[in-house]
C-alpha cells in the first residue's frame, strides 16, 4: 500500500524578533503498511511457506504462532483459522515434505532400472531435494517427536531400505550371494544415504554430482566385492 502523508501545520502564536511571522513547520508521518488481502488458498500457501522456513531454521519448539503471524504480516487468528494452531500447520508441512521426498526417491526405485543407475538415482535425487528444499529437509531430519505422529524422515528412509532390499535380493543372487541377507544391506545403504544428506545440507561445499558419484562409488564397489560368508577378523579373548 502507498505511504500515507500527513502535513502538520504549526502556527506559532509569537512573532520573531523582527516582527515577522514565524515560518510554518511541515512534517511527514508514515503509517505502517496495511496488510494485503489475499485469496484464501494463496494465504494458506503463504503461511505454509513462512512456517516451513521458520521450523527448518529454528525447530518446532522454538517457533511460536506469533512469529509465524508476524513473518507473514497477518494476525494470529488468521493462522488459527487456517490450521487450528502450530501443530496443525506443522503436520501439513511434514506431510507435504514426506510426500515430495518419497516421490523423488521412488522414481529411481523400479525393477527395470539397472542396479547401479538405481543407486545413483537415489543418492542424486536426495541431494536434489535438499538443494531445492533445504528448509524442508532440515525440518524432516530434526523433527519434534511430540508434534509428529505420522510420516517422518526416519520413516522415509525405512521405506527406502525396504524397497532397496527387495531390489537387492535378485542382484545378490546373481553375484552368488545369499539374498536372505538383502535387508542388512538395504538398511546399510539407506542409512548411509540419509546420513550423507544430513551432512550435505549443512556443508554444501562439495558439488552435488561429485558427492553422488563418490557415494555411489563406495556403495556400489562395496556391493560388488562382498564375500558370500563374511567372518569377523578379530578374535575374542
Outline: elongated
How large is the count of helical segments? 9
Low-confidence runs:
1-32
- Approximate helicity band: 55-70%
CATH C-level name of the largest domain: Mainly Alpha
Structural class: mainly alpha
Q: How do the SSEs run, as a string of H and E?
A: HHHHHHHHH
| Integer tally of domains | 2
| Straight-line distance between termini | 78 Å
Mean pLDDT: 81
What's the CATH topology label of the largest domain? Tetracycline Repressor, domain 2
Please name the fourth-level CATH homologous superfamily of the largest domain. Answer: Tetracycline Repressor, domain 2
Total E-strand runs: 0
CATH architecture of the largest domain: Orthogonal Bundle
The proportion of strand residues reads under 5%
Radius of gyration: 29 Å
Question: Could you characterize what this model shows?
Answer:
The chain is mainly α. It folds into 2 domains: 40-87, Arc Repressor Mutant, subunit A (Orthogonal Bundle), CATH 1.10.10; 93-224, Tetracycline Repressor, domain 2 (Orthogonal Bundle). The chain has 9 helices and no strands. Helix 1 (40-58) crosses helix 6, helix 5 packs parallel to helix 8 and helix 7 (153-174) crosses helix 8 (182-202). It is elongated and about 65 Å long. 27% of the residues are buried. Residues 1-32 have low confidence and may be disordered.
Short description:
The protein is an all-alpha fold. 60% of the residues lie in helices and 0% in strands.
Secondary structure elements and pairings:
Layout: H1 40-58, H2 65-72, H3 76-83, H4 86-106, H5 115-132, H6 134-141, H7 153-174, H8 182-202, H9 208-224
